Amino acid sequence: MFKKLFVVLAGLSCFQSTCSLFAQNVNDVVKVSQILETSKQPNLTAPALEQLSQFIETGLWDKLPQSARERASLAFLKQLKYGCHIAEIGESAEANKHMKLLSVIAVKIRDMRTIPILIDGLNGHYRNALVKIGEPALPYLVHRFGDNTMAGTGTGKSAILEVFKRMGTAKIKNKNLIAVKQVLIKAANDNDVYVRRRALDVFGELGDELDIPLIEKIKNNDTGFFEVDSASDGGKSHGKQKKFIVREEASKALEKIKSRGGLRSQ
After folding, report:
1. Distance from first CA to last CA of the chain, Å, rounded?
2. Per-residue pLDDT reduced to its tens digit, 156-208
3. Which domain, by its residues, includes 80?
4. Ramachandran category for residue 230: left, alpha or beta (phi over 0 → left; psi -120 to 50 → alpha)
5. Domain assignment of residue 33, yes or no
6. CA torsion sign, 128 to 133 to 138 to 143?
């Protein structure tokens, strides 16, 4: 009788401890949410972000009530948006650390709402996050390329093309590859010579034999160049000469594709 009573009491104690720990976890997430909802200062929000990251990494995040997760997610999305402006202000060790933390959580949290915000920023750490998110980010990147936000500037378009290159054919396949190829064709005809050069760089990674005619046409006809000092002869310069940077990149792309037998890189 006493043995059965002891087992019941031990089970009840364990249940109460579990409930207490669960309540504490929920309370901690609420506190994290409150900080992230009200502060824009990295030095104040960093500890809360670290705690949020730990919740996700340890699996406690998935055990929390939906309402608590949603509140924390919305608070994090707000911080991710602030991160876009932090990147615009300039580089610093503190800002760099903060941006890295935001990008790491953006990957861990598996919330599709992070993707448009990462594209709004497109700084180095946000690009890293987009590469790691991979395939789910591709439709957004394709759609946003050349729009009237950061993604439509020369810098933004080049950044998106960089993400495509880093994802490679390991993450860009089938219908996504077709869509990305359409972006590359558009980028190869962009007014910005540096965007065109980046497009040819990506063609070298994602292109195949079907892309060769277009790339050869660009190699022979693109007019983009900048002037460089020509080789000197005995200390005497021969003046400026044109360096056709897009044509050079097209030649490199052709070499890469042909070296693979006209296949895409693996």
Report:
1. 69
2. 999 999 999 999 999 999 999 999 999 999 999 999 999 999 999 999 999 99
3. 42-115+125-133
4. beta
5. no
6. negative
